[in-house]
Amino acid sequence: MWAHPLVVPAITFVAGALAMLLSQRLFDLLHPAYRTSSEIAKGNVAVALANGGRLIALSMVIYQAITRNDSAGQCLGWGLFGIVFLLAGYYLFDVLTPTVKIQQQLKQDNRAVGVLVLCLYIGLGIIASAVMM
User: What residue ranges are annotated as transmembrane (predicted)?
Assistant: First the structure.
């Protein structure tokens, strides 16, 4: 069964997708001001933009973790490093911009803040990916 050429890529894809979804859930738990899925269902564009940037950044980190490592342990370790890096970068930005209450502004559908957070996450994803190379 393991000898089939599609088995390992399929398992890797499923593991990567699960890692992205679990990371998404972790980010939601750490941002208690709102639930991402509920806000998007209400049509909150700012939250959707921020979430899209976060998903792109997570995808970049998981891509690097998968392609740059030879073992599942290394892949998991670097993936966790990247996710922690994204969280730390977001919180650092939040601390350095105290006049903008990011979570409140996103919940109020401030699209300018949504675009800013989208760009922040993409930038952090690029930096994390470069560090992981």
Answer: 6-23, 44-66, 78-100, 112-132
Alpha-helical (H) ranges within the chain are 7-30, 36-41, 45-67, 72-96, 102-107, 111-132
Task: Give me the half-sphere count of Cα atoms (radius 13 Å) on the Cβ side of residue 23.
Answer: 26
Nearest to 67 by CA among 19, 13, 109, 5: 13
CA pair distance 27, 44, nearest whole angstrom: 17
For 96-108, how does the pLDDT look when each residue is reduced to its tens digit (9 = 90+)? Answer: 998 989 999 999 9
What 3-state DSSP class applies to 116? helix
Task: Give DSSP secondary structure letters for 29-63.
Answer: HH-TT--HHHHHHTT-HHHHHHHHHHHHHHHHHHH
Give the Cα separation of 79 and 73 in Å (integer).
Answer: 10
**What is the distance between the terminal CA atoms of the chain, rounded to a whole angstrom?**
32
pTM of the full structure? 0.86
